[in-house]
Design brief:
Elements (H helix, E strand, L loop, with lengths): L24 H16 L4 E3 L9 E4 L11 E12 L2 E5 L9 E5 L2 E7 L5 E6 L1 H14 L10 H39 L1
Antiparallel strand pairs: 1-2, 2-3, 3-6, 4-5, 6-7
The structure holds ligand GNR and nickel (II) ion.
Length: 189
């Protein structure tokens, strides 16, 4: 099931997500829904707070479309070590249409639980290293805009508020059309 992605500055994106006790069926369902949502949105990663769930759960797939074999499930991830510095022009599914250069560690070593509940470790570089750090940030209530100057962040905030107002108006219009349609149907009976 594709879930709705929360758009910044929604307050849920500022919260610290809670560790998962056990990778039970509800966590597996969350992982599967998040993967479906990520693929539907053409993203390379997704963190649970982005679908409004404050759990330490991440999915990542940095492979080109269609490969599908490199889907990563990370539950309760820990960053064990970082090395070097790099920059990358980042985007975020919760901040649609925006992209800015962000400085990150070049390499990270991560430990997490997989979908089977077993611990594993991963050495990450390139886009995978960026994605892991970007998604880990989401679990800490941090977004890529928090790595930018306050001037840039406030400009983006203004554009997001405008976008949200437009989307809200659009949804209200759709709803009104649905109600009108239902009433018409009712009176025809
Ligand atoms: O889809 C995404 N692309 C991306 C590009 C550069 C750096 C990070 C990312 S993650 C982002 C998906 C997302 O918002 N995950 O939280
Ligand atoms: Ni993001």
């Amino acid at each position: 099931m594709v879930r709705e992605i929360v758009i910044w500055p929604d307050p849920v994106l500022k919260e610290i997500a809670k560790p998962v006790d056990r990778v039970d069926d509800s966590v597996k369902k969350l992982l599967d829904d998040m993967a479906e949502t990520m693929y539907a949105a053409d993203g390379v990663g997704l963190a649970a707070p982005q679908v409004g769930v404050l759990k330490r759960v991440i999915v990542i797939d940095t492979s080109p479309r269609q490969e599908g074999q490199t889907l990563l499930h990370l539950v309760n991830p820990e960053i064990l070590r970082t090395e070097g510095v790099t920059t990358y022009t980042e985007g975020c599914l919760s901040i649609p249409g925006e992209a800015e250069e962000v400085e990150r560690a070049a390499k990270v070593w991560v430990r997490a639980l997989g979908r089977d509940g077993r611990a594993f470790e991963l050495e990450c570089e390139g886009l995978l290293s960026i994605a892991v750090q970007h998604e880990y940030d989401h679990l800490q209530g941090t977004l890529f805009v928090d790595h930018l100057s306050s001037l840039k962040r406030e400009l983006i905030r203004r554009r997001m508020k405008k976008l949200q107002a437009e989307q809200k108006a659009e949804r209200a219009e759709t709803k009104a059309a649905q109600v009108k349609g239902a009433k018409k149907h009712e009176s025809a009976l």
